[in-house]
Structures are given as structure tokens and as C-alpha cells.
Amino acid sequence: MAKEYDVVVLGGGTGGYVAAIEASKKGLKVAVVEKDKLGGTCLHRGCIPSKALLRSAEVLQTVKKAADFGVAIDGDYQFNFLKAQERKQAIIDQLEKGIHQLFKQGKIDLYEGVGTILGPSIFSPTAGTISVELKDGTENEMLIPKNLIIATGSRPRSLPGLELDEKNVFSSDGALQMEELPKSILIVGGGVIGMEWASMLHDFGVEVTVLEYADRIIPTEDKEISKELTRLFKKKKITLVTQAEVQADTLVSQDGQVTIEAIVKGETKSFSAEKMLVSVGRTANIENIGLENTDIVVEKGFIQVNERYQTKESHMFAIGDCIPTMQLAHVAMHEGMLAVRYIAGEAIEALDYDLVPRCIYTSPEIASVGISEEKAKEAELEVKKGKFFFRGIGKALVFGESDGFIKVVANKRTDDLLGVSMIGPHVTDMISEAALAQVLDATPWEIGETIHPHPTLSEAFAEAALAVDGNQIHG
């Protein structure tokens, strides 16, 4: 029997479940179709599990440096990777349980199975009815939504011809399921995910080599941030090979070794390790969901939407990793909320993606918001900048983490804040102040004049802001 809803969400990942909760709070009748588990990639194969393991790596490094803090550890200590994996899973399970409870509170119907969008049919004169093939094998459910939100997310992609067997050659999904650590690993891709894995595995004691196609690691971030992370990673003995064009057809996996060739600055070189992790981006999950039964436009592998997240079918919306915006969990959440608010008849403002903070959970951490100095100059803006190093901050010295800096870029003519880039201790927690400053259109002077408590790491932000006009106190 067909069931009618105000909103049906196809996909129960971060964007999807947040959209569903927002819709339920608006008094709308809501259903979610999820083929796997609520929470999606972020909860089960991305944000949360990787950060849980990164926290274990951080604790391990703290133990190794305990003597520097006057803490003597008698006898040998051991790192139990399986125990770290168990802790990771316990966190995931707790959070997933919490989402189910929120669904129960919001009276949101959950259909566990694969949903397909149907064209005009006996159920509806317009496209959009969802046929759900349920996990339990019972007869398909037919859901008729007034509005459909597609939130099917993404999956790791690989290089053409490079097969991911998830035993010797991993995606980030497969790597999270490792039961033991390799002695060495090749990481193909020096972007955000690749660098987080490089940092984590090195801190776990794995020999790490990174092969990056661009001329620098994390090429999407400010050049000075990239340069600083390169310096610190090389200091840790992480091997970074840039301008490396990996030759997928040369992959050999045998006798406990993975070997592959790459053209590095015109010269063919061979690289070997016990395992390989391929981290070269993600692909939208838009196949086999019935888009061909609609007028929805797909370009370059992504669903096309307007600023209200409407597709060409005005009652169908799409959010998150399946549209060509920033592939970040907090972006998907906000896109979902905006789409629902529009469905509910509220006036919404288009999301300014330059105001979205970006975080990289390496050691040290990286965070940024706005545009980089390079992007500002490409836009032919006259810039001024300020930079302050954490080594001049008492709290950073107390933590024993004084590497890195904060950089503030402003428009020299208008004094508008253009962007902030940070690398150092706990900067992923500090970037929200910079994001708020941009939303409120604060100037560097206003940031610097805001009293930041002492001793805190946040003092570095105030100093960097003051440094834009040469007014820093401790630099």
C-alpha cells in the first residue's frame, strides 16, 4: 500500500538525517530511506571513526613524550590497535543509537532498504514516488512524497585501472577496518584524507610514503600552510613525493609487498610498501537510484541544483556529496536544513561557501575559512596580512605543542577580512571564531581588540589579527 509524506529523504547520512529532523520540527510528515546504517559515511566510514583513531594516535604520542612533562612511565608500554578499533566502534554505536532516538522523538519513519525514484505512475502523475526494496525481503513499500530530498552521499574513488581489493590496496573505507597495522604503507594522494592517514599511521609507528600528483601536499590550502606541514612531516621522517604521476597499470601486489611506479618530474621511479592506501577524492552515489526516470540534470557526475537545492524537478531537492559543492559533513547538514526551510515556505539566504570553515585533523591540525592569499591575489584584490607563530604563545608552550602559526588576510582597501588559515594545536576548535568574524563582517582590528583570555591558544588569533596592521604585541 502506498504511503504519503510531506518529505521523503533518500539517504540517512549526515545531511539526510539532519534534513529529516529539521522537517519533523517544522511539523512535516517525514520518512527516510537508508540502505545501510543511519549516519552514513561521516559516522561509519569517515569523520567519526577516523578522528577516534587520530585521538588514539595523539594519546600514544603524549605517552611517548611523557618524560618531557615530568611523568615517568615505569616499564614498557604497548599500543593495542584492536583496542583502539573497539573504542572507535563503541563511539560509532553510541552516536548511531542517538540518531535512532532522535527519529523516534520526531516520529520520523525509517525504511531500511534500497530506494528507487519512479517516473509518473499509477501512484502519482509526476515523477518522485519511491519504491523501497526492503532489507527483510518483504514486499516493496511505495512512498509518495510531496517533496523529495536526495542525500545519497559519496564513496571513495580510485585511479582508472587501479583496483581496490581492501586487503592490500585500500580505500579510506577499507583502511578503517584493518585489524593490524602494516609496517609500511604507500599513500596515493596528498589531499585532506591522505594527510590525515599519513599523520595517524606515522604516529602509530608505520613507515609512510605519500605520492601526490600536484606540486605540493594539501594543494587546496594556503601555500604557507602546505609548506609548514611539509616541513613538519619531513621532520617526522614521513616521505613526501610531489609531482608524482602514479602509473596504475604497474601495480604489483605479491609476497606481502605492494609495488607501483610513478613518473616523478619526468623520471620513472618505483615505490614499495607492505600496503597501499588510495586517497584521490570521492564519487557521488547517483547510480541506480532512478534519476533516469526524472528530468533531473547530471553534469560531471553530480546532480545540478539551484541555490535552494532544487533540481530541474521543482519538488525534488539534492544536498551533500551528490551535488557539486564542498564535500563536508557540516555543509551537507546546512544544505539539508536550508532545503527543508524552503520546503516549509520560509525565506532563505543562499549559502556563502566562502564562509564555511574547513578542517584537517593532522598533527598538527589545520583549519581555514574564507579565501587564501593566493586566491585573493588571483581575484586581483590588494591584500594585507598578519601572521603569528604559536611559539610566542604561553599556552602552546605549556601544551608542548608550539609548531605552526595563524595567518590573517584582509583587503587592504576596505579592511574586510578575506580569510584565515591556521596550523597548530587545536586549531580545528579555534576556527569557528574566525568563521563568526567573517559572518559578522569583523575587521582584523576588531578581532585584535576583542579581549582573548590569557593564557589560551586563542591569543594567537588576536595577535595575528593585530599583525595585519603591524600592531601585534608579542611578535
Structure in words:
The protein is α/β, with parallel strands linked by helices and 475 residues long. The chain has three domains: 2-155 and 284-343, FAD/NAD(P)-binding domain (3-Layer(bba) Sandwich); 169-280, 3-Layer(bba) Sandwich (FAD/NAD(P)-binding domain); 364-467, FAD/NAD-linked reductase, C-terminal dimerisation domain (Enolase-like, domain 1, 2-Layer Sandwich). It contains 13 helices and 23 strands. A five-stranded mixed barrel has the order 1-2-3-4-5. It has a five-stranded parallel sheet with strand order 7-14-8-9-10. Strand 8, helix 6 (192-203) and strand 9 (207-211) form a beta-alpha-beta unit. Helix 3 (47-64) packs antiparallel against helix 4 (81-105) and helix 3 runs parallel beside helix 6 (192-203). The radius of gyration is 24 Å and the shape is globular. The mean pLDDT is 96.
Approximately what portion of the residues adopt beta-strand conformation? 25-35%
Strands ordered across the widest β-sheet:
1-2-3-4-5
Distance from first to last alpha carbon: 71 Å
Beta strand count: 23
Question: Main traits of this protein?
Answer:
single chain, 475 residues, alpha/beta, FAD/NAD(P)-binding domain, Enolase-like, domain 1, five-stranded mixed beta barrel, five-stranded parallel β-sheet
Short synopsis of the structure:
With 475 residues, this protein is α/β, with parallel strands linked by helices.
Secondary structure elements and their pairing?
Elements: E1 2-10, H1 14-25, E2 30-34, H2 40-45, H3 47-64, H4 81-105, E3 109-117, E4 130-134, E5 141-150, E6 154-156, E7 169-170, H5 172-175, E8 184-188, H6 192-203, E9 207-211, H7 223-235, E10 239-241, E11 244-254, E12 257-264, E13 267-273, E14 275-278, E15 282-284, E16 298-299, E17 302-303, E18 316-318, H8 329-343, E19 358-360, E20 365-370, H9 373-378, E21 383-389, H10 394-399, E22 405-411, E23 417-424, H11 427-439, H12 444-449, H13 459-467
Parallel strand pairs: 1-2, 1-5, 2-3, 5-18, 7-14, 8-9, 8-14, 9-10
Antiparallel strand pairs: 3-4, 4-5, 6-15, 11-12, 12-13, 16-17, 19-20, 20-23, 21-22, 22-23
Helix pairs in contact: 1-8, 3-4, 3-6
